[in-house]
Amino acid sequence: MVALARPGSETQGAGRRIARAATILLGGFLASRLAGLVRDVVVLPQFGTSGELDLYYAAFRIPDLIFNLVAGGALGSAIVPVFAEYRAAGPGAAFGRLASAVFNAVGAVAVLAAVLGILFTPALVPFLGAGFSGEQQARLAVLVRILLLQPVLFGLGEVVTRYLQVQGHFAYPAMAPTLYNLAIIAAAVTLGPSLGTVGLAIGVVLGAVVYLLVQLPAAHSLGFRWRPGIDLGEPGLRRIGPLMLPRLIDRGAVQVSFLLTTRLASFLPAGHFAALNVAWLLMMLPLGTFAMSAANAAYPTLAEQAARGERPVMAATVRRTLSSILFLMVPSALGLIIVGLPLVQTLYQRGEFTLASAALTASALAVYAAGLPAHGAIEILTRSFYALHDTRTPVALSVAAMVTNILLATVLVAPLGHIGIALAMTSSATLETVALLALLNRRLPQVVTLGLIWTVGRTGLAAVAMGVATTLALVSARTVLGLAPILQLAGAVSVGGAIYVATAFLLRSSDLHDFLHVVRRRIGRR
Known about the structure:
- By secondary structure, the chain is mainly alpha-helical.
- Helix content is 84%, strand content 0%.
- The chain has one domain (12-39, 54-147, 228-525).
- Helix 13 (272-307) runs antiparallel to helix 14 (311-348).
């Protein structure tokens, strides 16, 4: 949740807009992540941490590469500033023409990339899954070809999402990921028992269809009109391409890193790669729910402030958003490290997902979670550079971080197994965050202030108190009382959460004050 600005400050109006947007996005992310949890609760007991699930997760790497290069973070980071400028000039035909041209261009490139991916799948699969057997590689190829339909639909949906967000409409973009997950759940229940992971892949494609279609009516009501053809002379479209290029390098580096670490993981015993992916998805729950929602909500405002040349106001917005993100990411990280095993047991341990599967997943989760504050900070820091139309700096650092990740994973996977891959990611993300913050403070003086340091310090003190209380509660519930995992989890989280809030209150945390202020306003409106 993004903090509101103090009454009377320059950032009050911007803070309120961001808080309203973040509240909607937060609700959408919560619903999406809960649906994602339900999806995994349905899927994992069917397959456990098995070789079949290894193939399913590995099959996403190539479609994810296409989506991220064509329409993922690269496109969103490029079109939001341009869309914002067109929107600031006033709603009209020019904005509609630009949106339609971008929609068509993304669709054409995504279709071409998907077709090429389908044609070259037999050559790509042996590299991606070098450690899999020939039969496993054949099944992997089938999954890849089905999933290659997803980036086309997601790419078109990304254009519509950004169009709506720039217009200040966040409800349908926030709802779409939940419907996507619900479609996969339906496929897992109806098709999974008979078709296995192929049924899951079909569900992914159907979910992507829903993701796009649910947003189109809202976009149409706000002036989006599809027109055939791509006007290459459109000034806005021509500006988006150069803005995307550095970000393409960034996303490409990330996806190449994932491809290479997937190749490394394919040599591990069956189920280890699936455990890594489940752990990553659990770590993404707080990251996607809080940090991404806050950063996405702040990004249009940061772009507007940068366009108006309001550097001090922009620095204040970055500072407040960063401290709010860390207020939630730091305790989330510590909590996942401490209660990871009972959490995984409670959610998934049934059917084919055994105690051994839970232990594999929890060990990876603890290492991934250690990097959660860094991942959260990266969300807002990179968007701050993009709002300044500086894509080179974050891209260069991202590429360096991914190279570091690959090198560390290659070195650590032999002695540490799947834990080595998780540790490499956490280490590289932490180094990237430190570099981003140092360089942004040079571009936007007063991002890092004594006030920010003290605010984050109070968050850290409250998290330490929470960690001690959570550990004591968990040990008591497990060894003294012998409670079931679900009761261990409930007791530890309740005690730890209460101690964190109480300590933050005693330390007069401004982030807690702002968070409670937003909650009270929402309750008062209802």
